[in-house]
Design a protein that fits this description.
Helix content: over 70%
Shape: elongated
Strand content: under 5%
Number of strands: 2
Distance between the termini: 102 Å
Strand order of the largest sheet: 1-2
Structural class: mainly alpha
Radius of gyration: 32 Å
Largest sheet: 2 strands, antiparallel
Number of helices: 33
């Protein structure tokens, strides 16, 4: 029956049935229309002449019901699909309903588990369709047999069913012709299916890979559902919970612009439904604060957290765990803003209340202990940080055991501190313990396993084991691309690390490719002014400086500096890091006055932010001391240079040990000063 398609598609002429020739002419040789007609003729016992008659009557019906269908190609396609649909409806009513419902999803990747979230309030046909996988597959098979659907070939399946897809122009036909009037019920059903299938963040560890796979499959359908909501094309009771699910999905996938739109709408709907101080409203406010913080909108985040905190203290009281979580979030925010005193105040407040309410060894208490450790590490108070981390680790080992994933996370935090202190052997042992534990608990491509692999790569880089470094980063990159996708921010972090490695190896072209990929990805995920974006901009500046492209490096550093001043303020320590880089660049360009101004600004900023004690253990500040010492040495201010070298040497000795590479380098520079002086 389908020989006429192959015959005319290949240009072969062996005198076929004249009516078959007439069908080909009527369909204008369009491949999709010919294929659909051929499948129909395979399914139905009818002659070519009968098909022509049905085709003409179908086209007349389409013209009458849809005046917008005017082109000859639309006539060929739409009427062939209409004939197939009429036959589908005769064979299986559920198949016909499924095709109509498909108009309210994306055209790609519909699968059984996605649709099985129906309940007693939904039409009986959808409950019959999803009562078991056999019923769903039978309905889908009828559509496939008529050329209206096909299997969606994708590696993004995981443990759930393989999906199906329809051609984009078939999808357009289902939207504008098959469903001549908008069906609010079907739109609401699609929204419910998508939002109900967004995975809970409390998913068991062993299912984390499926967690990410399912989210990526949902994103394209979420975009269509958000279109319904934003344009008023869906009317469902309790829409705020669906918006909450959509917002979580977008946030986790790094689509922060979309997440903000959805969360803002969710807040409006929640306030309207429950009032401004109801617990659901305050949870939504808190989530919006987290989103603003991830976007780098720190002022908006602070206002939002403060609103959530005031509301929770009023509704739940100052010692409720939800209140304490928001206090914790404010501490995180103040730390990001460089307001380290206020951050410590928040963490101490949360810790004291948790110790009182939950006890000193409760895991939520230990979470804040870790936060305080992170803060002390940022302040350069490494002994206090280590005490916090050791307390946390011992508490988790007591509560969960030595191999629990929460314990292993605490092992990682302590390993990071050892690496920062230059205790590289201790750090490696801790990382290896965590890696072996994660591989045993999960699998080699679990995100936290890969994060540990990435950390080991960074450690090997500090140990100058560059081959091992590259192996770790490449393993992490391949795993992230497989598990999270090529554009996920964790993937981009590893891309950025590879750029750093290639830069250190002198592979400057490869380094630039990595930095450019990371930068483009961050700009898409976070926006041009996010800190992660700006840090990669800063790395590009370092690369251009290494390549001798000093004007280009200056342009890049200025962009990073302006962005950090805008996002963090002029005195934030991350802003000062870029000020230091600009000073170094000016020194290389021979602009010594400008170099001194920038380096002095950086040093004074560190002293203001950290104090005279903490600055002696903060490595970027020690770098500035050394850079300024080098500058003073060049311009003959030997006494000032020596003073700065000694301060830097003392600091590096405290952090990395007095026999470390950095201390030996400064000793050599000091010896050179004494020779010049003599």
């Amino acid at each position: 029956m389908v020989s006429f398609i192959r015959t005319y598609g290949c240009g072969v002429d062996f005198s076929p049935d004249p009516d078959a020739v007439a069908i080909v002419r009527e369909l204008d040789g369009l491949p999709l229309a010919l294929a659909t007609a051929g499948v129909y003729l395979d399914q139905v016992s009818t002659s070519f002449s009968d098909y022509l008659r049905l085709y003409s009557s179908s086209w007349l019906k389409l013209q009458q019901s849809s005046p917008a269908v005017v082109s000859y190609e639309d006539r060929a396609l739409y009427s062939t699909w209409q004939l197939s649909f009429d036959h589908v409806k005769q064979q299986n009513e559920l198949s016909a309903k499924l095709l109509q419902l498909w108009a309210y999803f994306d055209n790609e990747d519909i699968w059984f588990e996605l649709l099985r979230h129906s309940d007693w309030s939904d039409p009986i046909w959808v409950r019959l369709l999803t009562q078991d996988e056999l019923s769903f597959n039978q309905a889908m098979r009828v559509l496939c047999n008529h050329g209206l659907a096909e299997t969606h070939v994708s590696s993004e399946v995981g443990t759930e069913s393989v999906g199906y897809k329809i051609h984009s122009c078939v999808h357009t036909w289902t939207i504008h012709v098959l469903n001549q009037e908008w069906d609010y019920g079907m739109a609401g059903l699609a929204l419910k299916c998508v939002c109900s299938h967004v995975p809970d963040e409390r998913v068991p560890d062993k299912e984390i890979t499926q967690f990410w796979t399912t989210q990526r499959r949902l994103v394209q359908h979420a975009a269509r559902c958000w279109y319904f909501v934003s344009t008023g094309l869906v009317k469902v009771a309790g829409i705020e919970w669906t918006l909450h699910s959509l917002g979580k999905l977008y946030h986790r996938q790094g689509k922060l612009g979309e997440a903000e739109e959805v969360c803002q709408r969710a807040l409006q709907e929640t306030e309207k439904a429950w009032g401004p101080d109801q617990t659901s409203t305050l949870d939504t406010v808190n989530n919006l604060g987290l989103l603003y913080e991830n976007q780098g909108k720190l002022n908006e985040a602070e206002k939002t957290y403060q609103r959530a905190l005031q509301g929770k203290e009023k509704v739940w009281g100052p010692e409720h765990t939800s209140t304490l979580n928001t206090i914790n979030n404010l501490g995180n925010l103040y730390k990001s803003q460089g307001k380290l005193g206020k951050a410590e105040e928040m963490y101490q407040r949360a810790l004291q209340r948790k110790e009182k309410v939950l006890g000193p060894d409760h895991t939520l208490t230990l979470n804040t202990v870790n936060k305080l450790g992170n803060l002390y590490k940022s302040q350069g108070e490494l002994d206090k940080a280590e005490k916090m981390y050791q307390r946390s680790l011992q508490g988790y080992e007591k509560a969960w055991g030595p191999d629990h994933t929460s314990t292993l996370s605490s092992v990682i935090i302590l390993a990071d501190l050892y690496a920062f202190q230059g205790k590289l052997d201790e750090a490696e042992k801790m990382y290896q313990r965590a890696l072996q534990g994660y591989e045993k608990a999960w699998d080699p491509d679990h995100p936290l396993t890969l994060s540990t692999v990435n950390n080991l790569g960074c450690l090997y880089a500090d140990q100058d084991k560059l081959d091992e470094t590259e192996k770790m980063f490449q393993r992490a990159l391949q795993g992230y691309e497989k598990t999270l996708g090529p554009d996920h921010t964790s993937t981009l972090d590893t891309v950025n690390n590879l750029g750093n490695l290639y830069a250190n190896q002198g592979k400057l072209d490869e380094a630039e490719k990595m930095y450019q990929r990371a930068l483009q990805g961050y700009e898409k995920a976070w926006g041009p002014d996010h800190i992660s974006t700006l840090n990669t901009v800063n790395n590009l500046g370092n690369l251009y400086k290494s390549q001798g492209k000093l004007d280009k490096a200056e342009e890049i550093y200025q962009r990073a500096l302006q962005g950090k001043v805008k996002a963090l303020g002029p005195d934030h320590i991350l802003t000062l890091n870029t000020v230091n880089n600009l000073g170094n660049l000016y020194k290389s360009q021979g602009k010594l006055d400008e170099a001194e101004k920038m380096l002095q600004r950086s040093l004074q900023g560190y002293e203001k932010a950290l104090g005279s004690v903490l600055i002696t253990t903060y490595v970027p500040a020690l770098n500035t001391l050394e850079n300024l010492a080098v500058l003073f040495s060049q311009i003959g201010r030997v006494g000032e240079a020596k003073e700065l070298y000694l301060r830097a040497q003392h600091g590096f000795g405290t952090v990395f040990g007095h026999s470390s590479r950095r201390c030996k380098k400064i000793a050599t520079e000091l010896a050179g000063l004494d020779i010049d002086k003599s």
